[in-house]
Amino acid sequence: MMQLHKDYKEFEDRNTAIVVIGPENDKKFSEYWHENDLEFYGLPDPSHSVLKLYGQEVNLFKMGRMPAQMLVDKQGELRYIHYGHSMKDIPENKEMLDLIDQL
Description:
103 residues, alpha+beta, 5 helices, globular
């Protein structure tokens, strides 16, 4: 999340909303958002309903939810998806910004 926070202005300049969905409950999610002064949207998903909808993997040996990044266009069409195999397997912001520029 902090990677996205770092380049938030770049995403905003491209008229792109960032939505982070996490497994925490409302209270923990809100506390984290305020403590880190995050400018984008956060959606708690403690029941894993969004996770299940998009087929995001849960691996208990790797501490839970595996990362996933998706680009959804303004018509609601899923244009790109990356399922990470670890918390280090997350596309760089530049890669995401280049994909946005191509849409």
